[in-house]
Design goal:
The complex is a heterodimer of chains A (about 270) and B (about 260). With about 270 residues, chain A is of the alpha/beta class. Chain A has helices at about 45-55, 75-85, 100-110, 115-130, 145-155, 175-195, 205-210, 230, 235-245, 260-265; strands at about 5-15, 20-30, 35-40, 60-65, 70, 85-90, 165-170, 195-200, 215-220, 220-225. Chain A has a domain at about 1-85 and about 165-170 and about 195-265: P-loop containing nucleotide triphosphate hydrolases (Rossmann fold). In chain A, about 35% of the residues lie in helices and about 25% in strands. In chain A, the strands form 2 sheets. A 6-stranded mixed beta sheet of chain A has the order 6-7-8-3-9-10, with helices on both faces. Chain A has a 4-stranded antiparallel beta sheet with strand order 2-1-4-5, with no helix packed on it. Chain B has one domain. Chain B has 9 helices and no strands. The chains are: A alpha/beta (about 270), B mainly alpha (about 260). At the A-B interface, helix 2, strand 6 and helix 3 of A face helix 5 of B.
C-alpha cells in the first residue's frame, strides 16, 4: 500500500497524561475508503487517538497527517476548516439538547454551507431516511432511546458528506437489534458514500465482521494490525486474550498489589 | 523548605496558566462580536435566559429591600425630625450601593451558576467537542453570546432593582408611615446627581456583570466533566463571583466617592 493510499498517517506518536504514559510510540496508517477498526482493552487510549486525529488533543511528540496536512501545525481557523471534512459519532451521541432531531442534523449544513432552506430540508430528510428515522424529525433528544440517539448522531456526522467518519464506541450499550442496525448502517454508508471509516470499539465480533483493517493497541503501542483473519490467527498472547475475552493472561485480572497473604497477615 | 517553595511555585504557575486561559476566552469572545446574521439571535436568546428569567428574583428582592430601607430610614430619621429626607436615603443607598451589589450577588447565584452548569454539562455530554468536530468554534457559538448577554443584562437588572426599590421605599414611607410625598420626591430629586450617583452605580453594575459572566463561563469550560466536577464548578462560580463583587465594590467606591 503506497503512502498516497493512506488518508491518515500517524507516526512516532507519544502522549502522556500526567504521570501516565498513554502512547509510547504509535505508528499507524489508515487506508482511504476502507473501514479501519482501532481496538484494544479499556484505557489504552483509543478515544484519545481519535481526538488526536481530530486535533482536539495535541501529542507530546510525533505527527498526525490527515489528507496530507499535519493536524497539529494548523492555526485554530484552519483546524476548524479541516474538520468540515471529518464527521464524528460520539459515544454518547452528543446531540444538542436544545435542538430537535431535524435541527441537529441540519446544524452542520446551516453553519458550514450556503445551501437554501429547502435544499437543507431535503438533505436532512435523506440523511434521516438513511438511518431509518425520517419519521422522528420533530422529536427532541430527550425523547429518543439510546440507539435512536446514536442513529441521529450518525445522520448528523454524515450530513456534510465528509471524507472521513470516525466512530467512538458505536456499539457500546446497544441491544442486539440496535447493534445489528448500526453494524449494517456503518457498512452500507461506507460502501455507498465511499468515505474512510475509523471505528474505535472493543465489541470484537461486530467490529471484525465489518472492518477491512484492524489495529490493536495495548500498553501504548500497536501490538497487532492486519485483516480480521490475520488478527484471529495472531500468535500474540495479548491479542488472543483480547479477542477471546480471557479474564486472565498478559493483561492481569488483579490490579498490581502486594501478595494477599502478606496483606492479610500484616 | 524546598518542597514548600516547589508547591508554591507550581500553584502560582497553575493559577497564572488558568488566568491566561480565562483571558484567551474573554478576548476571543470580545473580538468576535458582532457577527451580523448569526450572533444577534444567539445573544437575544441568551438575554432571555440570563436576563429576563432573572427579572422575578430581582424585582421581588428590590421591592423588599426598598421597603426595609424606607422603614429603617424613617425609624432613625424621625428621631431627628428629618423624616422628609427618607427619600434621599433610600435613593442614594440603592443607586450607589445596594442595587449594583445585591443585583450582582443575586445574578451570580441565579444566572452565573446556571451558565456554569449549562456549559459544564455541554462539556460532560460532549456537545462542545461535537461542535468542534462539526467545524464550529464553541468559544464563538456558545461562550461569546453568553458573555455578551451577561454584560448587557446586568446593568439593566441593576437599574430595575433600583427603580423597584425606590418604589418600595415610597410605598412604606408615604402610604404607610405618612411622610409627605412632595418632600419625599423633591428631596430625592435635589440630592441625587445623575453623573455622581446614577452613572457611577451603572458603571459598578457593568463591572460586576463583566466579572461574574467571565468567571461563570470560564468555570463551566474548565469544569471536570463529572457530576461532582460540575457541582464544584458551580459552587466556585458563586463563591468567586460574590467575593470579587464585594472586593471590587470597595475599590470602585473608594475611587468614585473616596474624596467626598
Amino acid at each position: 500500500m503506497s503512502v498516497s493510499d493512506n488518508v491518515i498517517q500517524i507516526s512516532h506518536l507519544k502522549f502522556n497524561r500526567g504521570e501516565r504514559c498513554i502512547f509510547k510510540n504509535i505508528n499507524l496508517s489508515i487506508p482511504k475508503g476502507k473501514i479501519t477498526a482501532i481496538m484494544g482493552p479499556s484505557g489504552t487510549g483509543k478515544t484519545t487517538l481519535l481526538k488526536m486525529i481530530g486535533g482536539q488533543l495535541t501529542p507530546d511528540s510525533g505527527k498526525v497527517i490527515v489528507q496530507g496536512t499535519d493536524v497539529h501545525s494548523l492555526a485554530r481557523a484552519e483546524l476548524f476548516s479541516l474538520r468540515k471534512n471529518m464527521g464524528m459519532l460520539f459515544q454518547s451521541g452528543a446531540l444538542f439538547s436544545d435542538m430537535s432531531v431535524f435541527e441537529n442534523v441540519a446544524f452542520p449544513l446551516q453553519v458550514n454551507t450556503d445551501l437554501s432552506v429547502e435544499l437543507i430540508r431535503d438533505v436532512v430528510l435523506l440523511k434521516l431516511q438513511a438511518v431509518g428515522l425520517r419519521g422522528a424529525t420533530s422529536l427532541m433528544p430527550s425523547e429518543l432511546s439510546g440507539g435512536m440517539a446514536r442513529r441521529v448522531a450518525l445522520a448528523r456526522a454524515i450530513a456534510l458528506d465528509p471524507q472521513i467518519v470516525m466512530y467512538d464506541e458505536p456499539f457500546a450499550g446497544q441491544d442486539p437489534i440496535g447493534m445489528g442496525v448500526l453494524v449494517t448502517l456503518i457498512k452500507k454508508l461506507n460502501q455507498s458514500l465511499g468515505h474512510t471509516s475509523v471505528i474505535v470499539s472493543h465489541d470484537i465480533q461486530e467490529t471484525l465482521s465489518i472492518a477491512d483493517y484492524i489495529c490493536i493497541l495495548a500498553d501504548g503501542e500497536v501490538i497487532a494490525q492486519g485483516s480480521a483473519s490475520e488478527i484471529r490467527e495472531s500468535s500474540s498472547q495479548k491479542v488472543q486474550q483480547f479477542i477471546h475475552g480471557y479474564p486472565d493472561g498478559p493483561v492481569p485480572f488483579h490490579y498490581p498489589s502486594v501478595a494477599l497473604m502478606d496483606e492479610l497477615t500484616g | 523548605m524546598l518542597d514548600t517553595l516547589a508547591i508554591t511555585g507550581r500553584l502560582c504557575i497553575e493559577k497564572l496558566a488558568g488566568f491566561g486561559r480565562a483571558t484567551f476566552v474573554l478576548l476571543h469572545a470580545l473580538l468576535v462580536w458582532p457577527q451580523p446574521g448569526n450572533s444577534i439571535p444567539l445573544i437575544v436568546k441568551q438575554l432571555y435566559s440570563v436576563g429576563v428569567k432573572s427579572l422575578l428574583i430581582i424585582v421581588v428582592s428590590g421591592l423588599f429591600i426598598g421597603m426595609v430601607l424606607g422603614l429603617q430610614g424613617y425609624t432613625i430619621l424621625v428621631d431627628f425630625a428629618s423624616e422628609d429626607a427618607v427619600g434621599q436615603m433610600v435613593a442614594l443607598s440603592l443607586v450607589r450601593e445596594l442595587a449594583p451589589v445585591v443585583t450582582a450577588l443575586l445574578f451570580a447565584g441565579r444566572a452565573g451558576s446556571a451558565l456554569t452548569a449549562e456549559i459544564g454539562l455541554m462539556k460532560a455530554t460532549e456537545q462542545l467537542a461535537s461542535l468542534e468536530m462539526i467545524g464550529v468554534d464553541p468559544l464563538r457559538r456558545i461562550v461569546a453570546p453568553r458573555l455578551w448577554a451577561g454584560f448587557i443584562s446586568m446593568p439593566l437588572l441593576s437599574m430595575i432593582f433600583a427603580i423597584v426599590g425606590i418604589y418600595g421605599g415610597a410605598v412604606v414611607s408615604i402610604d404607610w408611615l405618612g411622610v409627605y410625598s412632595g418632600s419625599f420626591w423633591s428631596v430625592m430629586q435635589s440630592s441625587v446627581d445623575f453623573y455622581d450617583d446614577v452613572l457611577n452605580g451603572v458603571i459598578k453594575s457593568l463591572v460586576f456583570g463583566f466579572v461574574i459572566t467571565w468567571i461563570a463561563v470560564y468555570q463551566g469550560l474548565e469544569s471536570v466533566p463529572t457530576s461532582e466536577g460540575i457541582s464544584q464548578a458551580t459552587t466556585r462560580t458563586v463563591v468567586y463571583s460574590s467575593l470579587m463583587v464585594l472586593a471590587l465594590d470597595f475599590v470602585l467606591t473608594a475611587l468614585m466617592f473616596g474624596n467626598i
